[in-house]
Amino acid sequence: MYENMKNKTILVTGAGAGIGNELCRQLAQAGANVIAVARSTEQLKELRSFSPSIKTLQVDLKDWQQVRQTLATVPDLDGLVNNAAVAIIRPFTELTEQDFDNTFDVNIKAVFNVTQTVLPKLKPNSCIVNVSSLAASRSFDGHTVYSATKAAVDSLTRSLALELGPRKIRVNSVNPTVVLTKMGRDNWSDPAKSGPLLAHIPQNRFCEVQEVVDGIVYLLSDKSSFVNGHHLNLEGGYSVS
Ligand code: NDP
């Protein structure tokens, strides 16, 4: 239970499934005012049934104007979590223009748009957490487009940490290795593929959803009050192996 999240107002994108969904549930249980953003009305209904305190907004993040209009209505915020993303993992030679555009539209253009839209609502001492990936800084087979978008997310994180610091808004990212959500299962369930990667992780396992949620909440909280422009790698020591 995250006692320091009580009464904090936090907007989370990609709230319908995976990491974002679990984050919304745990923040609501901790007494935060959660604004959950997703494109599926069914998933948002489920979140409201879980906790009627969760406010929901239905948006396709690829739609620039819809994001602007819908998110303009949000109240003052203590935190923004840019979590939604897509992962199209395919050999470089097979990736299409549409794959490129889809991935960039959701993973970085929408992060830029959402952040710019809600910026006037971010209070002093609030923070932004971008859900990036270890793939931002390390190479994995088939990850060319996905990795490029996450490298862009890390770059945006550092640039905004600089620009928004004087407004007392901190900006950080969490950068997990594989997490076995739908996205992780889709791409890493084959032992022939996951085995060599696991062999490079000293803890010899992938990241748990709870470990990502804990990292995000740490960065949202006052416990990280002097952490700004930082990428919190959640990778069990992969980078030192
Ligand atoms: P999921 O696929 O489970 O969740 C991604 C969420 O993003 C979904 O709710 C999805 O909605 C939403 N989303 C995608 N496109 C849009 C859109 N156009 N408009 C609105 N919402 C959209 O993945 P994870 O929970 O695993 O991923 C969460 C974050 O963690 C992502 O940023 C991902 O890159 C990052 N990450 C994940 C890793 C993993 O192995 N799982 C590893 C490292 C980082 P919908 O259900 O409608 O498609």
From TrEMBL:
This is L-xylulose reductase. Keywords: NADP, Oxidoreductase. Residues 8-191 form the Ketoreductase domain. PANTHER family: D-ERYTHRULOSE REDUCTASE, D-ERYTHRULOSE REDUCTASE-RELATED. InterPro entries: KR_dom, L-xylulose/Carbonyl_redctase, NAD(P)-bd_dom_sf, Sc_DH/Rdtase_CS, SDR_fam. It holds the Pfam family adh_short_C2. Signal peptide: none annotated. The keyword NADP applies. It comes from the Eukaryota. One of its GO terms (molecular function) is carbonyl reductase (NADPH) activity. GO terms for biological process: glucose metabolic process; lipid metabolic process; xylulose metabolic process. Belongs to the short-chain dehydrogenases/reductases (SDR) family. Homotetramer.
